[in-house]
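Protein folding task:
====================
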Amino acid sequence: MPVIIMKKLKLLKYFTAILILAGCQSQSRYVTIFPISPGVFQYYLTPTEWETDNGDIEVSVDITYRNTPGNSAICNISLVNTARQPRSVSSAFFSSGAADYPLENIGRLFSELENSKLRITSTLPGLSLEELFASDSITLTIVLDGIAYLCTPPELFIEYKNQVLDDINIK
């Protein structure tokens, strides 16, 4: 009898570990979804390389968003300027064609002089992100060192945002 109980406890321990690991996150190839509490999820859209209207600058964007009322999305942007070291971003905004969605609380995360790289973080109100993601047309304008750069997302980002939008609408 004790052997059977021990085997059942061992199976229960393994089953519990599998449930915990499986419940921690749901991940597609590009969007990671973390359950936070009932009905609340955190979405992480992995970095994507955006095209710019100037070949001297490379732009990579990643977004973290939690679907709770009043929550802001965190938008991190990496900028590499092959012509000179990027110093500061004075403003940035997403556009859907119908509306502009300014990034708020723009701050420097770090800069790498040897790679001419600047990484910034910013916030975007959650409702603005959802409205933006519902749009078919998205661009990002960044004012870097006094020069405005227009950036367009790759198809991969469109897939990301559609996946998150579908998931938000389902939940």
Observations:
- Confidence is low (pLDDT under 50) at residues 11-27.
